[in-house]
Amino acid sequence: MKTKLRDHIAEIVSFSDQEFEYIIAHFHYKKMKKNQFLIQVGQQKVNKYFVLSGILKSYYVDKSDKEHIIQFAQPDWWITDYNAFFNNKEATINVDCITDCELLYISNEDLEKLSAEFHKMEHFFRVKSNAGYVASQERILTMLNLTSVERFNHFNRLYPNLIQSIPKYLIASYIGVSREMLSRLSKM
């Protein structure tokens, strides 16, 4: 558990054993079952989660009760309701477990504390946030510019392991097509 986070952080910054012990003390472990909610719309306080094992999704449910998947998260990825987390607001999206999951989480207060105390951790969190912004922009542009066939092929290239690990209706929601259309795309 600790090793996975340490290796993940070490991809960007280095630190001593003593520094890491202080850093890991700000994280907490959580085990979740398939279909359990990690974050629900209206929740007052949310944390930022690092995925040790399992697969999660963040999504929005519109007024017609249609689910729109914003993000999947798999091992070594981060997930939260970013607006709620960074701005101390009520959650506006849901995050739940597609599979059983093991997670480490940190509060915004502890993230800010670590960032203030360790320039290296501030750098780490900035690099991870920037990567998330880039991925979000690419996702928006993909949805705006690509056909449904191109979006399906793009998803397969980006996330080849997810295609076999999650239900097809979730992939359909993520790429913005119906289940029937996804079935046709899968046969092409």
UniProtKB/TrEMBL annotation:
Stretches assigned to the Cyclic nucleotide-binding domain: 30-116
CDD domains from the UniProt entry: CAP_ED (cd00038)
Name of the protein in its database record: Crp/Fnr family transcriptional regulator
Source organism phylogeny: Bacteria, Pseudomonadati, Bacteroidota, Flavobacteriia, Flavobacteriales
